[in-house]
Amino acid sequence: MKIKIRKARKTDSGDIIRLICELAKFEKLTPPDIISSNRLLKDAFSKNPRFKVLVAEFGKELIGYAFYFFTYSTFLARPTLFLEDIFVSGNERNKGVGKLFWNELLKTAKKNKCGRMEWIVLDWNKNAIKFYQNLGAKHMKEWNLYRLVL
């Protein structure tokens, strides 16, 4: 069987939430509760979605996802594809799924005339850091991430 990357459908909702909970466990974070899960799915599959979702399908099973949206660079005067999450289920890692996602995201960024792609990686996730570096990505050491929780 071949791994297929495709746009998520509303019927994928249960699997997407399952995979998000698996990511939360991996990152030692609290998974979204029912209210947050419902809001996320509404935002993903509304008439004007707030973000886009790709899924990796192996046979009839979803084994990964990528959430992304577009921001804008004032200096490049072009959109930026921001990768919110890319996740591949534990048993399916190191099989090329991440690279398939990456190629699809790169194609999407180019189609939308993006000037760059950006994302955030946890400092302890050495496998993810190595994956991105092998793809030619550079760590932006001079930029510090700040957050205000509302």
Kindly describe this structure.
With about 150 residues, this protein is of the alpha+beta class. It has helices spanning about 15-25, 35-45, 95-110, 125-135; strands spanning about 5, 50-60, 60-75, 80-90, 115-120. It has a single domain (about 5-135), classed as 3-Layer(aba) Sandwich (Aminopeptidase). Strand 4, helix 3 (about 95-110) and strand 5 (about 115-120) form a beta-alpha-beta unit. It is globular, with a radius of gyration of 16 Å.
The CATH topology name reads Aminopeptidase
Helix content bin: 25-40%
- Listing every helix as H and every strand as E from the N terminus to the C terminus, the arrangement reads EHHEEEHEH
* Main beta-sheet strand count, sense and barrel state: 5 strands, mixed
Average pLDDT score: 95
Gist of the model:
By secondary structure, the protein is an alpha+beta fold.
